[in-house]
Amino acid sequence: MPSVNANLALTQLLPLAEELDKDKVTPGVLGFVVFAALAVGVWFLMKSMNRHMARVDFEEEPEDAKPVRSGGDAS
Q: Which tens digits make up the pLDDT trace of 43-61?
């Protein structure tokens, strides 16, 4: 039964595919080049961010070393 539905879909969609205008603008090579340039730029930015994050020297103080407030003053 699924093949009947597939045939019906193909017979209805095939005329629609022929109606597409072949003169419409598509992304083409320029779209690919722009997308590839953006991808390479993001790759370099991520590489730079990883290098900068590796330089960060952060050590959190242990909880015991933090000053403890004495109670009594609620304001």
A: 999 999 999 999 988 888 7
Q: 25 φ, ψ to 5°?
A: -80, 135
CA distance 2 to 68: 73
Cα distance between residue 28 and residue 34, in whole Å: 10
pLDDT tens-place string over residues 3-42 = 667 676 666 666 665 666 677 767 788 999 999 999 999 9
Mapped onto helix, strand or coil, the DSSP state of residue 24 is coil
Under DSSP, the state recorded for 37 is H
Count CB neighbours of 12 within 10 A: 9
Helix (H) or strand (E) holding 36: helix 28-55
d(CA 58, CA 18): 63
pTM for the predicted model, two decimal places: 0.46
